[in-house]
Write a structure and sequence with these properties.
This protein is α+β, with helices and mostly antiparallel strands and about 100 residues long. It has 2 domains: about 50 residues, no CATH class; about 50 residues. Helices cover about 40% and strands about 15% of the residues. It contains 3 helices and 4 strands, in the order ββββααα. It has a 4-stranded antiparallel β-sheet with strand order 3-2-1-4. Strand 1 and strand 2 form a beta hairpin. It starts with 12 loop residues before the first strand and ends with a helix.
């Protein structure tokens, strides 16, 4: 991936198709044009593409997300262990999920 000539204060990520993106309103949007035809600055990155942190702000954000995922993993391991031990019901565990997820199950 070519190095950017710009410095970004916000987290930016390199993509597998080239260019740089930032995460805006639940989607990755190009802030620098990728190397492939059909995409330009402002376009949404295809969901199938992977990203990698490209600056310090993105590396910090990426680490924060991994930390949060570890906390959730530990929490749900504990919650389901309590279900297995009969100390908590599945209904009680469901309370920790957003309503739209609860409505699916």
């Amino acid at each position: 991936m070519p190095e950017s000539t710009r410095n970004y204060d916000c987290p930016v990520y390199g993509t597998q198709g080239g260019g740089l993106v930032r995460y805006v309103d639940g989607r990755y949007v190009f802030v620098e044009k990728p190397n492939c035809a059909g995409f330009d600055v402002g376009d949404e990155m295809p969901q199938e593409w992977g990203v990698i942190p490209s600056n310090e702000a993105a590396r910090r954000e990426d680490e924060d997300v991994r930390d949060l995922e570890r906390v959730f993993d530990e929490f749900f391991d504990l919650a389901f262990a309590k279900v297995d031990a009969g100390e908590m019901s599945l209904g009680e565990v469901k309370r920790f999920f957003p309503q739209d997820i609860r409505d699916r199950n």
